Amino acid sequence: MPAGSTRVNGAPVDLSEVPDDERLLDTLRWRLALRGTKEGCRTGDCGACTVLLDGRSALSCLTLTHEVEGASVTTVEAIANGRIGEAVRDAFIAEGAAQCGYCTPGFVVALTGLLAERRASTPVSDLLEEMGGNLCRCTGYGTIGRAIVRAREAIR
Amino acid sequence: MGFTLVAPERPEEACEILASAAPGQVAVLAGGTDLLLDLDSGRSHPDRVLSLRRLPWRSLQWNGPTLTIGSTLPLSEIEVDPVVRARIPGLWDAIHGVGSLQLRHRATLGGNLGRASPTSDLIPMLLALDASVEIVGVQGIRSVPVDEFVLASRSTALRVGELIASISIPEARPSAYVWQRVRPSNDISQVGVAVARASRAPFWRVALGGVTPRPVRLPEAERELRAERPLTPEVVRAAEAAATHAPFATDKRATETYRRQLVGVLVRRAIAMVSAPLDRPVGWA
Questions:
Q1: Residue B61: helix, strand or coil by DSSP?
Q2: pLDDT bucket at B259, cuts 50 / 70 / 90
Q3: CB environment B238-276: b (16+ within 10 A), e (fewer)
Q4: Domain segments of chain A: what residues?
Q5: Cα–Cα distance measured from residue A76 to residue B15, given in angstroms and rounded to the nearest whole number
Q6: Beta-carbon neighbour count of residue B278 at 10 Å?
Q7: pLDDT above 90 for B209
Q8: Each residue of B52-90: pLDDT tens digit?
């Protein structure tokens, strides 16, 4: 199946070798060696595999690679190349919003997409609610919540 | 796993692929957020997966009072439409509650209907809105009310060679969808209640989800509601009727007793949201 002009982190990628049944998560991690995107539950519950597809957050574990043909895929490796992603990264660092770090790429990518999509005047409570698709099992949500608030302030 | 992915550009081609295959041989892929779980677990093992991504079914349009939503439009696109939210607030409630934002960026209304999960939060709302399903098939086009479309758990009225092209809601209705879950995001409702006020009798539509083999309307509760802004006794009678007649069962998510208790509360809450919309919590839009 022809892959069109799919881009990953700005660079065109050739997906012609990718089997039809392969998930975007596996293509990113094992074919393109972009291991920042994590596999957590593989059932769409934890958000660790979140990437941006044309700027919108999506679960790469529940997306077939060929379904994104022609799209622009952004992973955590390139997220801080943009102004919002940079602010999100800096906020997570400043608040120490990572412990084991496994969920962190998913949080950073999801929040970058969310802040880009919504007005910066979005109430904090709504941002926190919309981040409900990402699970953390060790840091606790206190520092992550503070990082979300900090990132929102930084881009206002 | 181990399937071939096909993504035709014309609906006729897609229907032809379905019509020429043996049952179970071809799986239909819209957003994939439910199907891919089945492919992973082996519950579904098709030879081919038919992707709808190239079909021209991503529109959202009003024709007079009727809203028509393309079957493959991502849920998040419906959610961000300010007119939809203002005119059919219950649809927004139900959609906004599905999974998480990253899931709603992929999941579709047509996919939710076609998969006919007994725990769908969208089907009860579509029932209360008297929505219908426009179907395209090798035999032509037909339209089926949602109530007749969803036959049972994971079973629909789709025939061989047919696909859902769009979903139509005949009129804007004051409406609400409320639910109870263990976890607000990425969880399945223990009980979901959809309420809508129609322009003709019965003026109040009440539907239940999450708890029965298929989402159902509750005529016993609807009959108790008459006024445009029902007073407490009327609402209490409706809530009691809902709790009595809801076809609840006990499963891993909740006991029957808890669900009966809960449905009374949720029916009262949903009616209040429709009767006094200014009291609704204000979201981000």
A1: strand
A2: very high
A3: bbbbbbeebebeeeebbeeeebbebbbebbbebbbbbbe
A4: 7-78, 79-155
A5: 39
A6: 5
A7: no
A8: 999 999 999 999 999 999 999 999 999 999 999 999 999
A107: nearest CA partner in chain B: B102
Contact indicator for B226, B271 with CB cutoff of 8 Å: no
Cα–Cα distance between A47 and A144 in angstroms, integer? 14
Task: List pLDDT tens digits, range A18-76.
Answer: 999 999 999 999 999 999 999 999 999 999 999 999 999 999 999 999 999 999 999 99
Residues 98-117 of A with CB under 8 A from B: 110, 113-114
**Mean pLDDT computed over every residue of chain B:** 94
3-state secondary structure A80-135: CCCHHHHHHHHHHHHCCCCCCCCCHHHHHHHHHHHHHHCCCCCCHHHHHHHHHHCC
Separation CA A102–CA B100 (nearest Å): 19
**Does A2 score more than 60 pLDDT?**
no
Q: What is the pLDDT of residue B1?
A: 66
Question: Are B76 and A56 in contact (CB < 8 Å)?
Answer: yes
Domain A79-155 - what CATH class?
mainly alpha
Q: What's B13's DSSP letter?
A: H
User: In chain A, whose CA is at the least distance from the CA of B54?
Assistant: A67
Beta-strand pair A72-74/A7-8 = parallel
Interface touch A23/B283, C-beta < 8 Å: no
Asked if pLDDT for residue A1 goes beyond 50, the answer is no
pLDDT per position as a tens digit, B224-240: 999 888 999 999 999 99
Instruction: Write down the pLDDT at residue B214.
Output: 87
Say yes or no for a CB contact (<8 Å) between A118 and B284: yes
Q: Tell me whether A53 touches chain B (CB under 8 Å).
A: yes
Please count the residue pairs, one from chain A and one from chain B, whose beta carbons lie less than 8 angstroms apart: 91
> CATH assignment of B175-277, given 3.40.50.720, 3.30.390.50, 1.10.3720.10, 3.40.50.970?
3.30.390.50
Residue ranges of domains in chain B? 4-51, 60-169, 175-277
ipTM of the complex: 0.96
CATH topology of domain A7-78: Ubiquitin-like (UB roll) (3.10.20)
| Direct distance between the N- and C-terminal alpha carbons of chain B, in angstroms, rounded to an integer | 40
Domain B60-169: give its CATH code. 3.30.465.10
In the block, tokens 């496994």 appear at A102
- Selecting from B2, B37, B183 the residue whose C-beta is nearest the C-beta of A43 gives B37
**Cβ B150 vs Cβ B123: under 8 Å:** yes
Q: How many residues does chain A have?
A: 156
